[in-house]
Amino acid sequence: MRTPVKLTAYALGLVLVFGAAAGAGRVLGPDNEPAPPPAHTDAHSDAQSDGHTDGHAGETAPAAGHLPGGLQVTQDGYRLTPVTTRLSTGAAQPFQFRVIGPDGKPVIAYTPNHEKDLHLIVVRRDLSGFQHVHPTLGADGTWSIPLAVDDPGQYRVFADFQPTGHDPLTLGVDVPAAGDYQPLPLPAPAIVAEAGDYLVTIGGDLAAGTSSQLTFTVAKDGQTVTDLEPYLGAFGHLVALRDGDLAYLHVHPIDAKSLAFAAEVPSSGVYRLYLDFKHDGKVHTAEFTVATLGVEAPKPTEQPGHDADGHTHN
Asked: What is the 3-state secondary structure (H, E, C) of 38-103?
């Protein structure tokens, strides 16, 4: 009987010890080190970068959810999905794509902007071969347009659109054109650009993070052109692409009957500007290399000759 009594007393002792420890834990509380804060969730947290980064030293990447247009293939549940996976460098071939909505279905309802449901911008990664075209929408939600590019290489395709009931979006995706890729150097900055038979002059300075007024003057045969024709509801349209990652900005005139633009670029750096204007029934494009204030643009050692107005507008 003595052994069972000892065991019972030992067991009771353990109960008292653990009970006291538990009570002390309740009095002293748990580990006083605070738990890490929950991860921040942004309204655009589903935006996915395509993996390209800007190579300019000293630039700060924007916070997630505040990326410039065109860097994402998906945003707010909308995704740009190419059906055609290669671009033609010969005869124009149908280029097809869809915009998939948050419900997983192709988007078929759009709010027109500047007279079109969707603007398609195609440009090679070296910022050459710019095209601004307007595909047609099929009943099944597939966009299509005959399209060809002049040279092989990796191209960025931008879809600029507004789904009905949503804010405007610009999504971008890379599509290759097979062949021997020979990248061109970025042209040096200049205030005058040729666009076929036209000379276009740019005025104003580009500053990062604020609205900068840029003005353009079009001349032909030594005379200022004063009878520009409306194109997509305005006398001019301006697209800006940042060198390095092709961050996208589509700018429209301050006044629909002028070539003055308020451009607000997202960061310091070098940009390629593409001005579309219409005269004598044809759309022309003038291209400029512009560096923001305080940034020196690269000076190419060689500038190959090329057709300054070899663009497509549909």
From this structure: CCCCCCCCCCEECCCCCCCCCCCCCCCCCCCECCEEEECCEEEEECCCCCCCCCCEEEEEEEECCC
Give the rounded distance of the alpha carbon of 187 from its chain centre: 21
Per the DSSP assignment, residues forming a β-bridge with 285 are: 276
Cα distances (angstroms) measured from residue 73 to each of 52, 129, 137, 139, 246: 12, 21, 19, 23, 13
Domain with 275 in it: what CATH number? 2.60.40.1930
- Strand-strand pairing, 237-242 and 248-251: antiparallel
Same-domain check for residues 168 and 204: no
For 213: left if phi > 0, alpha if psi spans -120 to 50, otherwise beta; the answer is beta
- Cα 153 to its chain centre, rounded Å, is 19
User: Is residue 281 one of the residues assigned to a domain?
Assistant: yes
Residue with tokens 């005869």: 91
pTM for the full predicted model: 0.76
Structure tokens at 268: 């310091």
pLDDT in tens, 89-115: 999 999 999 999 999 999 999 999 989
CATH number at residue 109: 2.60.40.1080
Gap between the Cα atoms of 8 and 2, Å rounded: 10
Condensed to tens digits (0 to 9), the pLDDT of residues 268-277 reads: 999 999 999 9
Domain boundary among 113, 147, 177: 177
Give yes or no: residues 160 and 203 share one domain: no
Confidence (pLDDT) at 219: 98
In angstroms and rounded to an integer, the radius of gyration of the C-alpha atoms of the chain is 29
